[in-house]
Design goal:
The structure holds 2 protein chains of 2 kinds.
Chain A lengths: L1 H26 L2 E2 L2 H5 L5 E2 L3 H7 L2 H33 L3 H16 L2 H11 L6 H8 L19 H28 L4 H9 L4 H29 L3 H6 L11 H10 L5 H28 L5
Antiparallel strand pairs in A: 1-2
Chain B lengths: L1 H38 L3 H4 L14 H8 L7 H32 L5 H12 L3 H14 L6 H26 L2 H9 L4 H30 L2 H6 L9 H10 L5 H33 L4
Helix pairs in contact in B: 1-12, 3-12, 4-7, 4-9, 5-7, 7-9, 8-9, 9-12, 11-12
The chains are: A mainly alpha, B mainly alpha.
């Protein structure tokens, strides 16, 4: 009986998720490009050939560096912002809390495509609001005329600054609401007792709140790493839809190898596998955290 | 004296907290506001050297251009219809399949139960931009490219892990005794399902289908890759980037298209948001 109920989902997930993942692994060891697509040549097994190509490609190292650096910056930023907003929400009156969390969840539900397009417009060199405001900023704050017409998308650092803002805007609500849900489970007496002992809010957080919410923070950390390391849509749009090769991250490079003519499915699959393996390593931590919390039981 | 002083600091703190909260909310809403405001501005105001928050001479022209399709050659309704077809049918089918699976994991103990649950957690994290390579080749071989049905299949499968994971908690929360009592009264398994379990799990189904809806409605990578040549099959996210990528950067049109794409999901979201909050962490859905 349970197997019968599981059958449809197992078939769908097996065919459209698990099987492609296995295929990806197989293609990464095959010679699979234009000649194989047209049928001029059969696919052949090439061992680690694609991986050797990838490792000797400077574009791979640039993309890997971008993916890692982006996660290193975006993850803590999202977690800290989200936690601060979550702590704030917990201490607001009901109406204000509902207002702030509705605003935050609207940003979260915003399609990634729209969010990216809006930020590209905000940071547009012709008529974008960001350059205008930076220009008006007093010079001791770094503002000034040099911001006029500043192009945010034709170099990696400014482009990923914009992407970080898009991701922060859309991801902090999830962290805030999750932290808030955790805070609601902490008995008020614990906080009061700590306050009577004269603990400030900084100590209160690290001595009481953080230890109690540690499992939630662990899950949020792992999920953020997975999402930010694998960021695609936002990066794809902000970096100009495969326009600037020096702004590629790992996922975009893999996508470009597969879908820009001439297709190199073998190399693309090898790149996809590198991305997948890194994410699965982090996922292993995520699964362990879930098992520890008894979510699998 | 001391108490008065303490009360005052308390009040000052409460006021400054609300001030900070207000700023957080306004900053968060600002990009959405700017999208809407730009959509109503005529070109002279969009490219003005001193941007104003609100349009001085609001116009429907951007919306008219986008809806009549004078830019893309096809009206908005075509793409709205495509998105609705793909989203609604995938939500419907995946909710049904997920409910069956959720009943299995919540109500039965069997050998591969833990394996199945762990498998759900893992496949959910597989990067879509990598899987899309293999799926593209499969779909090309199966003649499912440029097809809304093909896209629907992908959305069904990819929303399953999260919906099953969330739904099983809702099923588990239904007291087993209710089902047993109905069975004792002579109700068959189908009657028990439709009369007892389904009504009680309905709120959970609403929550999970919201997540499936947002996923399918917003999805970009597969739509971008699978709907390549046939413009008439574009879904709304691809439609928005179409205005964006075709060289002529008409921000008025892009923002109007973006509003038309975002509005349905925002309205839907505001209606169901209270339910949604409950399931957010349980589902761990990506934004």
């Amino acid at each position: 009986m349970p197997y019968l109920l599981l059958l449809p989902s197992a078939v769908a997930i097996g065919l459209l998720l698990a099987w492609p993942a296995i295929q990806l692994a197989m293609y990464s060891f095959q010679d699979y490009g234009l000649p194989q697509v047209t049928g001029a040549m059969p696919t052949s097994w090439v061992g680690f050939g694609n991986y050797r190509l990838v490792l000797s490609d400077p574009e791979f190292w640039s993309a890997l560096r971008i993916s890692v650096l982006f996660a290193v910056v975006a993850v803590p930023l999202t977690l800290v912002t989200g936690t601060l907003v979550g702590l704030l929400l917990n201490r607001l009156g009901r109406k204000m809390a509902a207002f702030v969390s509705t605003a935050a969840l609207l940003a979260w539900a915003m399609p990634a495509v729209s969010a990216s397009v809006i930020f590209v417009w905000l940071f547009d060199p012709d008529g974008g609001l960001a350059d205008y405001l930076l220009q008006k900023l007093p010079s001791w704050l770094g503002g000034g005329a040099h911001w006029s017409g500043f192009n945010w998308t034709n170099a990696p650092v400014p482009a990923y600054t914009v992407i970080t803002l898009v991701v922060l805007w859309q991801a902090f609500p999830f962290v805030a609401v999750s932290v808030l849900a955790g805070l609601k489970t902490i008995p008020a007496e614990l906080h009061e007792a700590a306050l009577v002992d004269g603990a400030g809010s900084w100590r209160l957080f690290w001595r009481v709140t953080y230890p109690l919410l540690k499992p939630i923070f662990l899950v949020l950390l792992l999920l953020s790493v997975i999402w930010d390391f694998g960021i695609f849509t936002q990066a794809y749009i902000v970096t100009g839809e495969l326009g600037n090769r020096d702004e590629f991250n790992l996922g975009i490079l893999a996508y470009d190898k597969a879908f820009t003519m001439p297709p190199a499915y073998g190399v693309a699959s090898a790149l996809g596998m590198v991305l997948t393996v890194v994410l699965l390593l982090v996922t292993a931590g995520y699964v362990r955290a879930n098992i520890k919390q008894g979510a699998v039981a | 004296m001391n108490r008065m002083h303490r009360n005052r600091t308390k009040r000052v703190r409460a006021i400054s907290r609300n001030g900070v909260a207000l700023i957080v909310a306004l900053v968060t809403l600002f990009p959405i506001f700017w999208m809407v405001s730009t959509a109503f501005k005529p070109p002279t105001e969009i490219y003005s050297l001193t941007p104003h928050p609100l349009p001085a001479h609001p116009t429907w022209a951007n919306f008219a251009n986008v809806i009549n399709g004078s830019v893309i050659g096809m009206p908005y309704w075509t793409f709205l219809r495509n998105s609705l077809i793909v989203t609604l049918s995938s939500v419907l089918v995946s909710s049904l399949i997920a409910l069956l699976a959720a009943i299995a994991v919540a109500r039965f103990r069997f050998r591969f139960r833990a394996t199945y649950l762990i498998m759900l957690l893992i496949v959910q994290m597989l990067p879509q931009q990598a899987l899309v390579i293999a799926l593209f080749l499969d779909f090309r071989a199966a003649n499912l490219l440029d097809s809304l049905a093909g896209l629907t299949l992908v959305y069904i499968a990819f929303s399953l892990p999260v919906t099953i994971w969330m739904l099983r908690n809702f099923v588990a929360a239904v007291p087993r005794e209710l089902e047993e009592a109905a069975a004792i009264d002579g109700a068959g398994p189908f009657r028990v399902f439709f009369r007892v379990l389904l009504p009680l799990v309905a709120p959970g189904l609403v929550t999970t289908s919201v997540f499936a809806f947002i996923f399918a409605w917003n999805e970009f990578v597969f739509a971008l890759t699978f709907i390549g040549t046939d413009t008439s099959k574009y879904t709304l996210p691809i439609y928005v980037t179409y205005f964006f990528s075709k060289g002529s950067v008409d921000w008025g049109a892009i923002m109007a298209a973006s509003v038309l794409f975002t509005l349905p999901v925002m309205i839907f979201f505001l209606i169901v948001q209270r339910r949604l909050r409950a399931g957010l962490l349980a589902g761990a859905v990506k934004g």
